[in-house]
Amino acid sequence: MRDLKQIVKAYDVRGVVPDQWDADLARAFGAAFVQVIGADAVVVGHDMRPSSPSLARAFAEGAASRGADVVEIGLCSTDQLYFASGKLDLPGAMFTASHNPAQYNGIKMCRKGAAPVGESTGLVEIRELTQSWINADGSVTIPATDAVTGSITQQDELQAYADHLLGLVDLTSIRPLKVAVDAGNGMGGHTVPTVLGGLPLEIVPMYFELDGTFPNHEANPLDPKNLVDLQAKVREVGADLGLAFDGDADRCFVVDENGDPVNPSAITALVAVRELAKAQAAGEQEPVIIHNLITSWAVPEIVAENGGRVVRTRVGHSFIKEEMAKSGAIFGGEHSAHYYFRDFWRADTGMLAALHVLAALGEQTKPLSELVSVYNRYIQSGEINSTVADQAERVAAVRAAFADEPGVSFDELDGMTVAGADWWFNLRASNTEPLLRLNVEARDEAKMAALRDQVLAIVRA
């Protein structure tokens, strides 16, 4: 018996094809999705992985078997699927494993208007229903119903997606810029030419060929080794900046004119300032900006200085989107380079964040390094993972080490955050692996390094 708990995660489906799942299971997921969500129509898209077209088509067949009409938008980025869900007001399914290696694939599902489907919003029910259709030998039998089979049609939404994004950021008066773009053989190679093609930009393309085997490097810019090629290209061609997209192109990382990575917290602050100005010009008082608890202290400081109000959340897109809906937030940012916009159905889109960076840079004459320097107020360690046998015991040991320090505060919104006057660190347990994740920030390099080493010594003792 196949246990779907191995591939149905907190926010999506993710596993190795065909070892852990295949077209038969995709077909069952499609039928279960329609049955649980109660959808009479669904939009489906997929990335460039070799297994994606057949899995997406099987899902569409399963959805249609339960009476839903299916709109296939074909090759797309994840944020393009969210766009289609919002524009068409349909639940959606995106076939991608994001930055995972080539043998993986997955499904990101959403309700109408790109509202997320996760553990607490239907994914458990979808998993359980699909599991009930798996036979003892691993085969899948989807029970027949009296529903009239729905239609499956194709629709191209790429230009409409580009037009929507370009309608949210005014780039008409920017100066000409040279931009190196590393698509990592992922879906950025599909979306970037259409979105950026008509702007006063000289695009230097890198790895735009769609290839789900990722022949050049992993499509995961969060790992510094995957930025090396882009950094070298920026320096080589004298680009004004570099953009790196992950495999499904919903995240965007930025490199300045020197080839140095720009901290995603600085991008969050830059975009927040622009979104605040836009909202205030429309008459909004104290617009809300969301940030997760491991973004830099600079973000809430800068938001407050610009007349906004911040809401601090746990790490993870479902928490950000839930809080955005609750608070009416105009924008949210995460350390992982996920950026969420109210004007984009509260969904994450790296492309829209990139357009804001291009606009901010092109509207003035300073280089990007100077432009973002005002948003870099602290020194961060980046996320450091440690394998531990007993996560709770190690966290308790760290708490004990800092418990008697004067002026130190603790909170447990997500893991344990410990803060002093000019420093903080967060220690979070992984939900899926025996890991503790450490993020440290301080006013200066020496304090950050000392604090990082002190905590790691306890965690790894």
Report on the structure:
It is a single chain. This protein is of the alpha/beta class and 461 residues long. The protein folds into four domains: 4-156, Alpha-D-Glucose-1,6-Bisphosphate, subunit A, domain 3 (Alpha-D-Glucose-1,6-Bisphosphate, Chain A, domain 3, 3-Layer(aba) Sandwich), CATH 3.40.120; 160-255, 3-Layer(aba) Sandwich (Alpha-D-Glucose-1,6-Bisphosphate, Chain A, domain 3), CATH 3.40.120.10; 264-352 and 365-373, Alpha-D-Glucose-1,6-Bisphosphate, Chain A, domain 3 (3-Layer(aba) Sandwich), CATH 3.40.120; 379-459, 2-Layer Sandwich (TATA-Binding Protein). Helices cover 36% and strands 21% of the residues. It has 14 helices and 21 strands. It has helices spanning 23-37, 52-65, 78-88, 119-132, 158-166, 188-196, 228-237, 264-281, 298-305, 317-327, 350-362, 368-373, 391-402, 445-459; strands at 13-16, 41-46, 69-75, 92-95, 104-110, 152-154, 177-182, 201-206, 241-245, 252-255, 288-292, 309-313, 331-333, 339-341, 347-348, 379-380, 384-387, 409-411, 416-419, 423-429, 435-442. It has a six-stranded mixed β-sheet, sandwiched between helices. Strands 16, 17, 18, 19, 20 and 21 form a six-stranded antiparallel β-sheet that branches. Strand 18 and strand 19 form a beta hairpin. Helix 8 runs parallel beside helix 9 and helix 8 (264-281) packs across helix 11 (350-362). The longest helix is centred in the middle third of the chain and has 18 residues, at 264-281. The chain starts with 12 loop residues before the first strand and ends with a helix. The relative contact order is 0.10. Its cofactor is Mg(2+). Keywords: Isomerase, Magnesium, Metal-binding, Phosphoprotein. InterPro entries: A-D-PHexomutase_a/b/a-I, A-D-PHexomutase_a/b/a-I/II/III, A-D-PHexomutase_a/b/a-II, A-D-PHexomutase_a/b/a-III, A-D-PHexomutase_C, A-D-PHexomutase_C_sf, Alpha-D-phosphohexomutase_SF. One of its GO terms (molecular function) is metal ion binding. Belongs to the phosphohexose mutase family.
